[in-house]
Write the structure tokens for this entry.
Amino acid sequence: MFSRSSWLHLRIPFSYFLLPIFLFSLLISPNIDPNRILIVFFIVHFLLYPASNGYNSYFDKDEKSIGGLENPPPVDKGLYYLSLLFDLIAIVLGLVLINMTFALLLFLYGLVSKAYSHPSIRLKKYPIGGWLAAGFFQGFFSILMCYVGLNDFQLESSLTSKVIMTGALASFMLLGNYPMTQIYQHEEDAKRGDITMSILLGVKGTFIFVAAIFTITVALFSIYFNYYFDLKYAFWFVLALTPVLLFFLYWFGMSLKDNSKVNYKNTMILNFISATCLSVFFILTFLDSSRILDALK
């Protein structure tokens, strides 16, 4: 019914890069239920995020590399309907298997992702507005959404200071990372009239901006873990991000000598290293802080 191209444009593996956000929500969750963890993970990473990816691809109609697809095939109308179908399934499953609040948050996330891409609104073409929207909804809002789903909570019991601080940190981290994901797409974005944050900053400016946010992020996370958990996790966090920093500096150095190094391949490598290191960190911190490791001994 749907073409191979439509399924490819859902870019399901690309959802891996947002896995740390889900795991960060899990870290602060008081109610650990393995079944609910799997349900929320499936809905968010295999339905909601792919729906957003597919919808974005349909209206962008990229001819060059995009996140998760080095050589994107042409899109067709089937992709539009497939992305809406994935959205609908996510919302229905969220309502039936979790609660109405979770389903409503899934619906709102889908609406904003559509506003980001649809030509009648297209937040993506505004460098500051698009940057802030992506940072807020992929960070703070996603933390809240996953937290509600993981704990089967209502909204009023979810907006605690700890959840708000966690969401704010996630958004700040993503606001630093997001321009990096756009750095190789300047030509393609400009052709459509989309002035992204990375275009506004320039290639060198994007690297410097991300480095500055990275430095502040490490300091903020150190304060956060010292206050809500244990100072040792701040050291774990720094250690986990060391491979990310080393590749970032290596890539920055290469880009200063050869602008062709600012490409899809290196962007995906950085994203993969970052997502993997952060995911390992959050999993280990969750296992240690929840005493699950002690129970397994």
User: Anything to note?
Assistant: The CA atoms of residues 27 and 216 lie 22 Å apart. The chain has a mean pLDDT of 92. The two ends are 50 Å apart (CA to CA).
